[in-house]
TrEMBL record:
Transmembrane segments: 49-70, 76-96, 108-131, 137-158, 165-184, 199-217, 224-244, 256-277, 289-308, 314-331
Superkingdom of origin: Bacteria
Annotated Pfam families: EamA
Membrane topology classification: Multi-pass membrane protein
InterPro entries with a match to the protein in the record: AA-Vitamin_Transporters, EamA_dom, EmrE-like
Designated name of the protein: DMT transporter permease
Family of the protein in this entry: Belongs to the EamA transporter family.
Positions of the EamA domain: 50-181, 196-331
Pro residues bias locations: 1-10
Region (Disordered) residue spans: 1-34
PANTHER family reported in the protein's UniProt record: EAMA DOMAIN-CONTAINING PROTEIN, INNER MEMBRANE TRANSPORTER
Subcellular location: Membrane
Principal location: membrane
Amino acid sequence: MSPGPMPRPAPSGRTADSAPASPPGEAHQPDAPRSPTGRLLAPLVNAPYALLTLTSLLWAINIVLGRFMAGSVPPITIACLRWFGATLIILPFAWAELKRDAPLIRRHFWRLVVLAACGISCYNAMSYYGLQYTQAINGLLVQSVGPLLVALWSLFLFRDRLSGGQATGILVSLAGVIVIISKGDPDTLLHLRLNAGDVWILIALVIYGFYMAILRVRPPMGQLSFLASIMLIGAVQLVPAAIIEQASGVPLHFDRFTLLVLAYICTGPSLIAYLAFNRGVQLVGANRAAPFLHLMPVFGSALAILFLGERFAWFHGAGYVLVLVGIVIATRARPVPPVPPDGA
């Protein structure tokens, strides 16, 4: 059965089964949680830029650890274990929402399958696979095109155009990423050789850019029930490939370090980061959220300085400033109203 095309937001500004939408090109912002815990966390839950910054930090750590895991746990197996583990952690907290949203899950099941494939199974398996065959500098450079891919998908699917300010902000922050990765030396980029791992990461980013763009048409479920649903579906999608991977004789080594890394991967970049990221995109839209992906190399280099003994140099400072300035420009720019569909 085909999942069918993703619905466009209706001309009236409403999406399927949704509450009234925010201004054109922006995501609807639901009411703040009303429970005592919700009221306590409301300042963070409704602070999209803090949520997106936290996401980039957790994902930057994940990239470093994923590179360390290469050779210990096969890429598809680690992705499968990651999402089954994250599902087990979130399930007790999401159970009430899952029961409440069961009719929505049945009604929108195939849309959830597509979201899980793009945001969970395919993206993560391909990323881990690519990290087996590339260097960190290559992976970070390829990751930096993510915001541009999100903009292209938003334009293709929903006719969302970047404003001049948003495009300028993305390019400025991209320049900062390039300064950090190249260490301020253009020869580094001129002699950079891409490999098969980089191609896998690029394909993964194309798929994830699609996920970011279509989050606006996700089923109108609670945050926890939505994430638990796509986590479980994504983990199940990975099972056949993981079985084939293990049957092919790929070695699997578990030690204390591997188990600790898996514990972090299941919680930090999976559960916490996806809750924060989905909420951030929900509040400000994909195009405004995308430049925050450029914070990953910023956090990655800062972690290397703090924990791996790398010395702070001028290119770190210059790159950090460019990335931050670019993000400020992109987030403060007024979005361009989407082009109405033909005949509207």
